[in-house]
């Protein structure tokens, strides 16, 4: 089910929903009865607002809670938190030895992305080149990046693991100059990868080819 999670706080909703599937006595949502994993994968964007309303949860409060708990974990046990995370094989080296200028555009809060890059990958990326949660949709960030004067005339590449995000980029005529890639190794499904293959703007990228793109 990880492919449905766009932002970290959604894990809280997903885990609670899975508990309701398994323990009928604690159910407070109208969608849990008879719900399957396949249905969650297909309909998460429709299910999420329903369960948030029925559970009386707010997005900003959940984001704050998720970040606060993670901050406490990092403060009390940095090595434990780092050990609970990992990069896909080869990604750390690809970032470390990249000759291209890199920007990180993520739905993760920037301070956590920075900590993982430094501690796990041994990579230090300037704070102004990490666009985390709160900096706006990725489409907006890409527009900002392409307008930077020193980027004029350069080839721009955007590697993403969510097909929906790439489709949003394609909808924006102003972003027609970006080369778009869907990482096969990321949080996407076989169905999404098959759909991506039918979209001319999108190239499917294998993990083994990722480092080549950064050189």
Automatic annotation (TrEMBL):
It comes from the Eukaryota. GO terms for molecular function: SNARE binding. One of its GO terms (cellular component) is lytic vacuole. GO terms for biological process: SNARE complex assembly. This is Uncharacterized protein.
């Amino acid at each position: 089910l990880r492919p449905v999670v766009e932002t970290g706080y959604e894990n809280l909703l997903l885990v609670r929903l899975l508990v309701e599937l398994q323990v009928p006595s604690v159910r407070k949502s109208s969608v849990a009865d008879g719900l399957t994993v396949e249905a969650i994968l297909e309909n998460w964007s429709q299910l999420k607002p329903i369960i948030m309303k029925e559970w009386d949860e707010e997005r900003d409060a959940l984001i704050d809670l998720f970040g606060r708990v993670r901050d406490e974990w990092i403060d009390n046990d940095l090595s434990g938190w780092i050990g609970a995370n990992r990069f896909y094989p080869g990604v750390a080296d690809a970032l470390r030895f990249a000759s291209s200028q890199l920007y990180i555009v993520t739905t993760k809060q920037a301070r956590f992305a920075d900590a993982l890059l430094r501690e796990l990958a041994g990579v230090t990326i300037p704070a102004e080149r990490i666009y985390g949660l709160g900096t706006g949709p990725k489409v907006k960030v890409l527009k900002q990046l392409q307008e930077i004067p020193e980027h004029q005339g350069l080839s721009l590449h955007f590697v993403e693991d969510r097909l929906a995000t790439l489709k949003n980029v394609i909808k924006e005529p102003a972003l027609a100059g970006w080369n778009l890639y869907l990482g096969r190794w990321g949080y996407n499904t076989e169905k999404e990868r098959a759909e991506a293959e039918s979209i001319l703007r999108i190239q499917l990228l294998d993990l083994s080819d990722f480092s080549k793109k950064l050189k």
